[in-house]
């Protein structure tokens, strides 16, 4: 048997601090619980990759480059700055305009109904820090793609040439229109000077002639300058040629990219599911909700739902897990002081809780303790039929004939409320033996649990070297466990972390603390064979061997009762003991 670490639990334990790599590993393990979502994401990504490859496998892309030129009278001048003379954004919009597409459609012989498809296949981009327009055309055949890309390029250059010529001609005509009246005035003034005699008037006419001549010369210079401009719109630096291969990343690359994107989507979906999952995501979440440590995690029962009492030879890992939990409890000062343990499940089936109670009793007996196991489940008791028992002597707490209680004292109020009080001896094999007080169906469960007889049964732990383990129904289904908390104190919660919500665990802690008890820790287990994952329904319905062994009789409608005031005791006259005050709420019977 290995050495077990001893943890002091005088104060509520919190989740241990973890470094960043441990947290990342823990989060990754939590994400792997949603393998279905991750697999679905990868599947969708693969389908998308295949679709992308198939849809782009019949398209071809041809590219042509055009470098634009600004009008200039000296193309070799180093001060030429075409990027200031040309607005490249406007030039790109013109290349994508419907006027260019209309002219290209006429040149290509494209019908009106295919005009929209002609425009949709064209893309015009501008590489950064350049005066280049890149015409990219996508078509279903390589020849058609190259043909249409070149047609679009030529049409754009032709329309730009026409636009520049029209602008220059308009400016030249404007200067000529300004020059004609000034030239006519100059001719008239020359005729007047010839007929004028010498004198001041002729001198003034000469001065006016000079001014008119300067205006005509200036306008003639502007016209000559415009007519000398080089208005070439640009040139094709790279003509489109038919592409050799279809566009797209290819089938293999598409599948790889699709798988990568799908994996990312699957992980994102798993992370979102993890964030909004109300179930505890780790043992730390369970410890935080209960404010108590996780004492153990039971491995899956390899016996497939075998005997409730674990046998070391059949499944040594399971038996050793129970011993580990028992030793951790034995070194907890809160339990060692009173040696009373209440074992409960949150809701649903108590099958695993019963197995934990039985095997902890066997583990305590193995250490030499005088162990008494009390089955306080008076609604569906099953331990007597599931354990190897021999009838023992009548215990001192059982009622004697003639209305006398143990010790010869008169029977008091509540002595007859507990069932027949049989004491059985359970043979735990190599672990030894322990006593069992089996549960029996009771007509008034609250009264039986709060009776003086139940108090005396639990008080057996006050004897030297004695330990009492009490098994109660699920705490969120019935208030039976709360009725026992004021006498047992220490509570062990047994649950499947995937079948209970964090809010349920917090509520259990609040209920037990309000009733005056303490949660000593939790024992986690995997889902039972054949049990669906998810929250168990309220009620004591059991599954597995325990359920099959239960007496088959008509179940009464559950009686729901609650603690009237947590922690408030009611004195029973003449008995010297306190019981929890309960209020019975009857919901009717079938």
UniProtKB/TrEMBL annotation:
Keywords annotated in UniProt: ATP-binding, Membrane, Nucleotide-binding, Transmembrane, Transmembrane helix
Transmembrane segments: 34-54, 251-272
Gene3D superfamilies according to UniProt: P-loop containing nucleotide triphosphate hydrolases
UniProt biased composition (Low complexity): 399-411, 540-550
InterPro entries linked: Bact_polysacc_biosynth/exp, P-loop_NTPase, Wzc-like_C
Region (Disordered): 385-424, 528-590
Protein name, as recorded: Mrp family chromosome partitioning ATPase
UniProt organism field: Streptomyces spororaveus
């Amino acid at each position: 048997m290995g050495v077990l670490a001893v943890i002091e639990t005088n104060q509520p334990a919190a989740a241990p601090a973890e470094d960043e790599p441990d947290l990342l590993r823990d989060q990754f393990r939590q994400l792997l619980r949603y393998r279905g979502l991750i697999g679905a994401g990868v599947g969708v990504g693969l389908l998308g990759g295949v679709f992308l490859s198939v849809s782009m496998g019949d398209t071809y892309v041809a590219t042509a480059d055009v470098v634009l030129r600004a009008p200039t009278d000296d193309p070799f001048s180093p001060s030429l700055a075409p990027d200031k003379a040309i607005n490249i954004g406007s030039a790109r919009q013109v290349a994508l305009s419907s006027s260019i597409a209309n002219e290209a459609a006429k040149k290509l012989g494209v019908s009106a109904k295919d005009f929209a498809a002609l425009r949709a296949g064209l893309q015009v981009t501008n590489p950064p820090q350049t005066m280049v327009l890149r015409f990219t055309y996508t078509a279903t055949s390589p020849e058609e793609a190259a043909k249409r890309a070149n047609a679009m390029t030529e049409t754009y250059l032709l329309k730009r040439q026409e636009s520049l010529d029209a602008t220059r001609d308009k400016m030249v005509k404007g200067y000529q229109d300004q020059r004609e009246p000034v030239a006519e005035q100059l001719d008239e003034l020359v005729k007047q000077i010839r007929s004028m005699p010498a004198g001041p008037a002729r001198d003034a006419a000469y001065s006016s002639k000079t001014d008119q001549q300067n205006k005509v010369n200036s306008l003639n210079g502007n016209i000559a300058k415009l007519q000398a401009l080089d208005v070439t719109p640009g040139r094709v630096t790279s003509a489109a040629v038919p592409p050799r291969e279809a566009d797209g990343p290819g089938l293999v690359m598409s599948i790889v990219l699709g798988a990568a994107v799908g994996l990312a989507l699957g992980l994102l979906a798993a992370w979102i599911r993890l964030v909004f999952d109300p179930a505890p995501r780790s043992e730390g979440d369970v410890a935080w909700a209960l404010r108590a440590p996780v004492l153990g995690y039971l491995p899956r029962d390899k016996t497939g739902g075998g005997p409730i009492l674990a046998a070391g030879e059949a499944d040594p890992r399971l038996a050793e897990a129970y011993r580990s939990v028992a030793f951790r409890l034995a070194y907890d000062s809160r339990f060692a002081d009173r040696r009373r343990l209440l074992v409960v499940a949150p809701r649903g089936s108590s099958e695993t809780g019963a197995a934990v109670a039985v095997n902890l009793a066997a583990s305590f007996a193995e250490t030499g303790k005088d162990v008494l196991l009390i089955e306080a489940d008076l609604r569906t008791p099953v331990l007597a039929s599931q354990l190897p028992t021999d009838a023992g002597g009548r215990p001192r707490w059982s009622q004697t004939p003639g209305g006398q209680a143990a010790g010869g004292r008169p029977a008091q109020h509540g002595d007859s409320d507990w069932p027949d009080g049989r004491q059985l001896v359970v043979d735990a094999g190599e672990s030894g033996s322990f006593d069992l007080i089996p549960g029996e169906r009771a007509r008034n469960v609250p009264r039986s649990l709060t009776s003086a007889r139940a108090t005396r049964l639990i008080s057996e732990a006050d004897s030297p070297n004695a330990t009492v383990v009490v098994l109660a129904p699920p705490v969120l289904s019935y208030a039976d466990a709360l009725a026992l908390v004021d006498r047992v104190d220490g509570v062990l919660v047994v649950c499947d972390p995937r079948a209970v919500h964090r809010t349920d665990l917090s509520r259990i802690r609040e209920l037990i603390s309000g009733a005056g008890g303490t949660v000593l820790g939790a024992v986690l287990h995997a889902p039972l064979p054949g049990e669906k994952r998810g929250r168990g329904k309220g009620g004591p319905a059991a599954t597995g061997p325990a359920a099959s062994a239960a007496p088959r009789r008509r179940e009464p409608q559950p009686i729901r009762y609650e603690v009237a005031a947590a922690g408030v005791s009611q004195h029973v006259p003449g008995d010297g003991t306190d019981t929890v005050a309960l209020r019975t709420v009857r919901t009717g019977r079938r």
